[in-house]
Amino acid sequence: METIGRNDACWCGSGKKYKKCHCQFDEKLKELQQEGHIIPSHDMIKTPEQIEKIKESGKINIAVLDYVAEHIKAGVTTQQIDDWVYEQTTSRGAIPAPLNYEGFPKSVCTSVNDQVCHGIPSEDVVLQEGDIINVDVSTIYHGYFSDSSRMFCIGEVSKEKKKLVDVTKECVEIGLKNVKPWGLLGDMGHAVHMHAVENGYTVVKEIGGHGVGLQFHEDPYVSYVSEPGTGMVMAPGMMFTIEPMVNMGTDEFYVDEVDEWQIYTDDGQPSAQWEVQVLVTEDGYELIAY
Ligand code: MF3
Ligand code: CO
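# MF3 complex -> structure
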């Protein structure tokens, strides 16, 4: 940590004196670090101004997903969902973050049944009664990023698939309950993992959540297969996603060799994912996007 005088301006940009701003915060982090914990760097701590701007981005992300929720049904192609997302995002003055991100060709990820994530919208994928689909929306608004996803059941789905979708949502809710200032990310991830395991499911290890707000993907990496007592300290002002990928069968997966994006379960069994964007606050958390 840099040396900063008690009467100097705080590193957070508030304009307040350090001793009246993040001084105690830094002391608390230092103590936790001395106890052996991993602590966030200052650039992971969002300022109140940044938080306000990220919230505006989050509101658009929520509205786009609400639009999808109202219109998705059997017979719709995933390309149509992509068109909705592009239109609903750009008409609000925002940009779909996935479009051209590391070469991703579309505005949204649409992952159906055994697709774990990064499904590419296509005219050829027509939603059928009984399908489950994750629609993962990410928005850039005035340079600030938001990211959340929801599952949709198309018509009547099997009770096994319905349960997978419901338990995965519960996993995220349990994760949220475990977002506590000065708590550990590893405890949060462990609670998520346990709920999936208790229901007979597996959680993908290699792909997880991430810091978000000033960039699409920031540190830290957020795992949902973690050991209690480990992981980075959650400090007020940190912002990250909770987005476990929960599989009915094996947690093993493969990447489409041709497009190098789309990810599928090895055993062809279904996978579900819900994603929220959360801010750590002084007394808990605040939802930024869902
Ligand atoms: N939205 C995904 C996430 O939750 C990232 C997708 S990257 C993309 O992190 F390029 F496929 F959009
Ligand atoms: Co994400």
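# post-check
The pocket of cobalt (II) ion (ligand 2) is lined by residues 147, 210, 241, 243, 275 (CB under 6 Å).
The mean pLDDT is 98.
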